[in-house]
Amino acid sequence: xxxxxxxxxxxxxxxxxxxxxxxxxxxxxxxxxxxxxxxxxxxxxxxxxxxxxxxxxxxxxxxxxxxxxxxxxxxxxxxxxxxxxxxxxxxxxxxxxxxxxxxxxxxxxxxxxxxxxxxxxxxxxxxxxxxxxxxxxxxxxxxxxxxxxxxxxxxxxxxxxxxxxxx
Amino acid sequence: xxxxxxxxxxxxxxxxxxxxxxxxxxxxxxxxxxxxxxxxxxxxxxxxxxxxxxxxxxxxxxxxxxxxxxxxxxxxxxxxxxxxxxxxxxxxxxxxxxxxxxxxxxxxxxxxxxxxxxxxxxxxxxxxxxxxxxxxxxxxxxxxxxxxxxxxxxxxxxxxxxxxxxxxxxxxxxxxxxxxxxxxxxxxxxxxxxxxxxxxxxxxxxxxxxxxxxxxxxxxxxxxxxxxxxxxxxxxxxxxxxxxxxxxxxxxxxxxxxxxxxxxxxxxxxxxxxxxxxxxxxxxxxxxxxxxxxxxxxxxxxxxxxxxxxxxxxxxxxxxxxxxxxxxxxxxxxxxxxxxxxxxxxxxxxxxxxxxxxxxxxxxxxxxxxxxxxxxxxxxxxxxxxxxxxxxxxxxxxxxxxxxxxxxxxxxxxxxxxxxxxxxxxxxxxxxxxxxxxxxxxxxxxxxxxxxxxxxxxxxxxxxxxxxxxxxxxxxxxxxxxxxxxxxxxxxxxxxxxxxxxxxxxxxxxxxxxxxxxxxxxxxxxxxxxxxxxxxxxxxxxxxxxxxxxxxxxxxxxxxxxxxxxxxxxxxxxxxxxxxxxxxxxxxxxxxxxxxxxxxxxxxxxxxxxxxxxxxxxxxxxxxxxxxxxxxxxxxxxxxxxxxxxxxxxxxxxxxxxxxxxxxxxxxxxxxxxxxxxxxxxxxxxxxxxxxxxxxxxxxxxxxxxxxxxxxxxxxxxxxxxxxxxxxxxxxxxxxxxxxxxxxxxxxxxxxxxxxxxxxxxxxxxxxxxxxxxxxxxxxxxxxxxxx
Lengths: 167, 788
Ligand code: FES
Ligand code: FES
Fold this sequence. Notes:
InterPro entries (chain A): 2Fe-2S-bd, 2Fe-2S-bd_dom_sf, 2Fe-2S_ferredoxin-like_sf, 2Fe-2S_ferredoxin-type, 2Fe2S_fd_BS, Beta-grasp_dom_sf, Diverse_Oxidoreductases
Structural class of chain A: alpha+beta
Protein name (chain B): Xanthine dehydrogenase, molybdenum binding subunit apoprotein
Largest interface: A-B, 54 and 54 residues
Radius of gyration of chain B: 28 Å
Helix content of chain A: 40-55%
CATH superfamily of the largest domain in chain B: Aldehyde oxidase/xanthine dehydrogenase, molybdopterin binding domain
Radius of gyration of chain A: 17 Å
Strand content of chain A: 5-15%
CATH architecture of the largest domain in chain A: Roll
Bound molecules: FE2/S2 (inorganic) cluster
Shape of chain B: globular
Low-confidence stretches of chain A: 162-167
Number of helices of chain A: 7
Number of strands of chain A: 5
CATH topology of the largest domain in chain A: Ubiquitin-like (UB roll)
Helix content of chain B: 25-40%
Strand content of chain B: 15-25%
Number of domains of chain B: 3
Largest sheet of chain A: 5 strands, mixed
Keywords (chain B): Molybdenum, Oxidoreductase
Shape of chain A: globular
GO molecular function, one term (chain B): oxidoreductase activity
Number of strands of chain B: 29
Oligomer: heterodimer
Distance between the termini of chain A: 69 Å
Strand order of the largest sheet of chain B: 3-5-1-12-9-10-11
GO molecular function (chain A): 2 iron, 2 sulfur cluster binding; metal ion binding; oxidoreductase activity
């Protein structure tokens, strides 16, 4: 028996019949073909499945698809299309902050959420914010560097333009 | 020639991953695809009395349920031995357990259903009746005559034993001023790739073609395995390894489940998907290590290391892994002991024992972390016995940089290494004087810091002596097809594979430099037996050294072909021409003569305008097998700075240093991240990672909530420096680097922890060094001090 779920996925309304026990991750991956959201543990430990639900990162493996009813979901595919994380992606690329790429979507979600609440995090704060994201390949340092660099760059862009006038 | 080789070129294929456009096997869905789930043995050893599948087969969505009787006959059993491991035994293995179950997690039935969820529901309804038997889960006693056997099909629990010795080893010990010794235990751990093992087997009965999409490092090896074990013509078997979410050696072994997916697809004529869930990964992916080592070192009064003696007992699974065996790690442990040092004499004894646990086999840095930790811990004890400091004792004993070629006491041949230069560089980076002063000042305040260092060698670029001589059908050579497209762009199809190391990027850099183009004009294809030439692929740090050399030589052949054609077109001696900037140029002046796209256009669309008889084919194929030394060893040294909380046993990793010599560096950006990732995979098992079993052979922490892997917050920043000693065996001069970080990180960390604990006389010799073990060591030391 399937139930109807209404959500907004990456900006577009989606109405889909799902089995009540389907996780949000299975719904996104299997029903919508959004395979950029990955599954590493299916128990909320690894962070590979993080997506934004109403702006906040959630583990798509722990949330049921039916719980997303009426919600606004953003996956890596959507954030890429809108350009919302373009600078983070560029920083990760510059710094080679990914190898196999399996953790990367989840890392970008955590990074985006961190920078939203703390524009200039210290290295320790970044490491702390990644405490729910496993990466088996990189050793984390490049990821920390990439997030720190993005934070710095965003701070510069966001800085008031009156510095010029003062000169 | 080296415009792009040596540059920190970014990885083109990383863009797809950043955009969520990776293509992993676990993402793949094919028409009519079935999902496989395995029913597994809940006990470590026992006899199957019956399997009742009736209720399960009535479950919704179930298409077929296999037990051994209907599935195994489709597959030739496999045996994990190699001829050059004399006397080795391992009973045959097949997909599903026949009479006996041999470890907790051993597959006994396979369910195929329309969805994974339906297959799982049905699995719950399968009734398996197993008569429990006492499992073999212990250590030394299992090798005593008459001990209960882990696998009744073997004649004892001894899978393999080896002895390696120099004639004068006993004399060296007898004459030594000091003999230091200790026993070590290295826990069992596992790869935990973030993407679990994944396979989609797709047999098409109408054409007789089997296509297997598999997350693996070694597609050719599996093409051969599937052809032979399922009786298919090799040409009808295609293995595709698209993006792979981590492998680290774990995904190149033959597993019951992948063989099961292929067998089921052959029988049903439909695609069969098996993706391990994380709990299954823990009880089916190979585990690594699990060694008890007793080590002794003979030292002269002046600190000269004279000899080592090693006894290594390693406990594998109930069979040896296939096709690389479970004995290769122990074999490397006893051969890598003492490798950085001049030490003349040696005795190494290895015993490989069966037990009822998940099979062990090759995982990143096979054997290195164990050999390195034992050697370097004994070197520290030798330093203490002779009043040297950590740097001084190594300076006295490391093979001198001008003393090559050198043959180690265990028989390894070293072409040229740079231990002394690495040691000097590390000393400069770490500033041990300042660290000692800081340590003393902090100790006065009850803060216990310590640092430790560890020299290492790493085996890379293995030739055929590694597996080929033992009869294993594992290729030591690689192949590349390089071609120029009509546009002048270049394509390279190569047998080495990519799991995120940057293989495709470095191949593009190497090829670009041979053909005078930018790497952006070189596209690279890997990971498909139908579209790339056959080769060994990526393991044992051979991608850059062997793959890179293959690409270089193929690129040069294409270069010569292009220059010949250009010579005819511009009516000039080809010897006066070269390739640069996307064109054929005058070799002396660099003046452009003809663009590559013009040559491509003429050779493709107007070959009629070329001189008669000229070869206008702009495709070359080349295969390269390493010659010269059997391996290209690399070397380096690592340093670790830690702080131990002696109240809680918690260790804070403050800093880590690596000086590494991997020969010619093709891409420093990628090399450094290989080292960092490797270091963290060495620190993980040193402090956190351990597959814990109870006496019944049950894995008690087999989930990602219970099994600890290193997290960002626990890991230190890692400072890296390089010495470059290119190998002369190849034109490129590159050696491997992927395992160097893992090889010595744990050894340096163990020495650092013990340095921190020195004021208490406590000493750790077991990994992982958990808070509990640290507190136990402190307790033991306290009791020893207060004992009468
Ligand atoms: S898959 Fe959701 S946290 Fe691991
Ligand atoms: S890049 Fe592979 S897990 Fe992070």
